[in-house]
Amino acid sequence: EVQLVESGGGLVQAGGSLTLSCAASGFTFEDYAIGWFRQAPGKEREGVSCISTSDVTTNYAASVKGRFTISRDNAKNTVYLQMNSLKPEDTAVYYCNAQEGNDYNPFADSGSWGQGTQVTVSS
User: Where are the beta strands (DSSP E) in the chain?
Assistant: First the structure.
């Protein structure tokens, strides 16, 4: 079965950094594109970043571009989200999603999800 486990969240001051991890198991990791999403209470879930399987194509939401970096280590079945220059508006639960195919489609609303990890950025 497909399993995704997010970790690395925590409390950080504005301007600080955190690295999130999405550990995958139960499927051929290198065949899946991965997306990072976030959701704050009462708000709609939004896409943050995504990465392709073999082409190493990445995309970022305008709100995080230049501050966040997505990467993957297929040998470790893990996708990372390096978050720098964090802002209070980055506060949310962060989720990863695995979607079979080379490129990630943020509008497909498909694939498997993890339980999420909380990121809280204080002013």
Answer: 3-7, 10-13, 18-25, 32-39, 46-51, 58-60, 68-73, 78-83, 92-100, 112-113, 117-122
- Angle 97-100-105 (CA atoms, 0-180°, nearest 5)? 65
| 51: nearest Cα among 25, 70, 30, 28 | 70
Whole-angstrom distance, CA of residue 122 vs CA of residue 72: 28
CA 106, CA 93: separation in Å to the nearest integer? 17
Amino acid of residue 31: D
Token readout for 108 is 């497909």
Given phi > 0 = left and psi -120 to 50 = alpha, else beta, which region is 108? alpha
Q: Could you read off the pLDDT of 30-40 as tens digits, one per residue?
A: 999 999 999 99
Residue 109 has pLDDT above 80, yes or no: no
Neighbours of 77 (CB within 10 A): 18
Residue 53 pLDDT exceeds 80: yes
